[in-house]
Amino acid sequence: MSNNLLDVHIRHTLHTAHGILPMEVDFSLARGSIMALTGPSGAGKTTLLRLIAGLIHPENGRIAFEGDIWLDTASRVYTPPQIRHIGFVFQDYALFPHMTVRKNLLFALSENQSTQIVDALLEATGLTQLADRKPAQLSGGQQQRVALARALVRRPELLLMDEPFAALDPEMRYQLQDLLLKLHRDHNFTVILVTHDMGEIFRLADRVAIMETGKMTRFGMPSEVYLNETRQEGLLIYGEVLTCKRQGETLTVHAWIDGKIRQLNVPAHFETQMQPGVTFTLRYDAASLDVWTADNRP
User: Fold this and answer.
1) Which residues of the chain form beta strands (DSSP E)?
2) Beta-bridge mates of residue 230
3) Burial class (CB in 10 A: 0-12, 13-18, 19+), 187
4) What angle separates helix 140-151 from helix 170-187, to the nearest 10 degrees?
5) Is 76 helix (H, G, I), strand (E, B) or coil?
6) What is the secondary structure of 53-72 as a DSSP string?
7) Mind listing the pLDDT tens digit for each residue in 226-265?
8) pLDDT value at position 202?
9) Distance between CA 65 and CA 129 in Å, rounded?
């Protein structure tokens, strides 16, 4: 028996705008991991989430969760979505418009489950004061907090998120990333997150899988998958800005990159991308990337 929380082995047919593609996915994920799933549109990312959730039946495959078989087409085993220990956060929030925030969460309760979890999640997500409002009375960021809280009502061990922060402005996206990390630390659930945001991948994920034409072409730690890649135009860098100081036509930036605080010296026109707290993607000369201080983040 595998020691992994989740084992997925799927064969399925994808019907895309570019035609029919064979989908072949094999991966395992340990408890408490946050895996980012990325790649071009039509590669099968959303389909994979729905297959894991049980919302789509694959043609062939096997999915095991903590030793329980959720799916085995060979043995005709199938566990319905409502019995799997899964929370799902959709890109469009999928809230009930006629229900208040509190009622959206109460609706997600399982039979005989205490309502105390609803109050706890409203407080944890900063929604207590908004509990009697309906979705139309909320901002996009507030609606996404409701969607996240609702997905956690049943205390899922696996949280599936389909580009949940893509439509939000950078400041709100950063705040909700913080919230997800806090809830993840508190409850140690496992996450699979579809995203195209490279800064989000490096900020949130300890594993990343790149999907192309129905297959995972690369899988591993973000540093393994990305930071060792080089191009003729320089090194591909992802990080989070800690400090930024302008000196004439040059910026001295201290950033958290691949587990270290590093110093970048970049042209001044990057200033809008290099504000403290902002995640960034940058191609730059590898010779300018120097370790600035200790390996541990302050």
Assistant:
1) 6-16, 19-29, 34-38, 60-65, 68-72, 77-78, 86-89, 158-162, 190-194, 207-212, 215-220, 230-231, 234-247, 250-257, 260-267, 279-284, 290-291
2) 235
3) middle
4) 20
5) coil
6) HTSS--SEEEEEETTEEEEE
7) 755 544 345 556 778 888 888 888 888 888 776 677 777 7
8) 82
9) 37
pLDDT tens string 107-150: 999 888 899 999 999 999 999 999 999 999 999 889 999 999 99
**Rounded to whole angstroms, how far apart are CA atoms 284 and 264?**
9
pLDDT digits (tens, 9 = 90+) for 30-88: 999 999 999 888 899 999 999 999 999 999 999 999 889 999 999 999 999 989 989 99
Residues 6+ apart with CB under 8 A from 188: 31, 32
List the structure tokens of 88.
Answer: 């799902």
**Alpha carbon distance 246, 262 (integer Å):** 16
C-alpha pair distances (Å), 138 with each of 44, 61, 97: 31, 41, 11
